Fold this sequence. Notes:
By secondary structure, the protein is α/β, with parallel strands linked by helices. The chain has helices at residues 2-21, 78-92, 161-180, 183-192, and strands at 25-27, 45-52, 60-61, 71-74, 96-97, 104-116, 125-138, 141-154.
Amino acid sequence: MKKVFTILAAAAAAVMLAACAHSPVQVVVQPQVNVPADTIGSGYTVSARGVNQLPGGGLGSLGGIYADSSNVRLGNDIEQSLQTALYQGLESWSFRPVNSGADVEVVANLTDLRYDSPNKLYTTKVDTGAGIQLQVTVGGATFFGNYATSGKDRNLIKPSREEVQSSVNRLLSATLQRAFEDEKLKAFLRQHL
């Protein structure tokens, strides 16, 4: 009986390990910006869109023994989420959103978004980062701005999906926030509107 119990316990442990080995983490990315009210865009229309230029299909790996299968992946439409955050900030500047024929066109190219542990034996260090290239066009003039945020997380145990999601959203929100705080962007808009 003891031998049967040992075999069953070993089988259960193997099944649990196999399940962990094939469990990618999907995160919902919904960046937020907090932009002080301004009248920069008063009387003008704006169209905005996000473009996903991330290489590959994921944000990285949680590391650990099963690093190859513990991938971090997007669980929603990142382009739509970027557009929503852009409109959130632009409306604070008194712009009126339209679908086409806008006075101002804004494109946020997502060039970097990562949550990756370089350690393949256990998860203690995680490299994080976000990068956006912003392109703002008014008439024949175009403004380009590159914004990035990076960091290093430390974990004693494998982080939960909620922790990963919170970290990724914090990074991307901070990166977008940098764009809206860029005095050069504000000066460009004031000059060309």
